[in-house]
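The methods section describes the discrete structure representation at length, but only in general terms. Each protein is reduced to its one-letter sequence and a matching series of backbone shape codes. I believe one specimen quoted in the main text would settle the matter. An entry of this sort, consisting of the sequence and the corresponding backbone structure tokens, reads as follows.
***
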Amino acid sequence: MTGYEARKDGVLVVGGVAHDMDFVRLELLRMLGRWPWLRTVCVADFEHCATLSPSDFLISYTCNVRPSAAAEAALESFVKAGGRWLALHATNSWLTWTAEGVGSEHRASPFFTTLGSAFLAHPPLGRFLVEVQSSDDPLLAGIGDFEVEDDELYLSTFLRAPDEVLLATRFSGETPGFLANRWSDDAWRPIMYRNRLGAGEVLYLSLGHARGHWDAPHRTPYYPKVERGAWTSPSYLEILRRSLLWVAEENIEGTKP
């Protein structure tokens, strides 16, 4: 084939709570628009995943979006058959607000076992160092360790060990407001990892918190601060750009952040 790129179809799932989904949806669609042959259906839940074929791609940025049993099974089948899934930020979060703190469901369901991890807690927003674990990977080539500010450092439990950890940081301390509120082991906390399942792959990246004034009604009718987290980091944006190319099985162009 010469003179044009072959069309590829994908699904972008953006929806849920506690985040500025409008901002994220627009940013991801703007980035995908750089490659007009990538034709993307944008939806708010995972029920559309039943229509995915292994040649399609899947991108998700969700929080508290719980798929039906049929959609969970479709996600698992999609990846096992050769599909690629790029899961961003709170995709692995199923939250419950209680008087004692925020809890997180992390049962061994097809959703979490396919994704590989489930969110438990994060410390208060702040600055932290993101360390590159696999500099030879094309997703990270030429990108050094970098800091992000006002993002959520996700602390998760793993239903299966990652096949490859690409970004990580260390953390010990308290996570006030969550049921899992003490982390004392100063362990490495994966931020970006790859899991292979059957013929397909899942790439998960926990960075990318975003919240606007009207996105935290569970806390206040008007949230005082607009938070953009890693979306202000050139390194994050370059990793995200490459990840979007990866999920669509396009060549990852360039290595300079």
Observations:
- The first helix runs from residue 21 to 32.
- The longest strand covers residues 182-197.
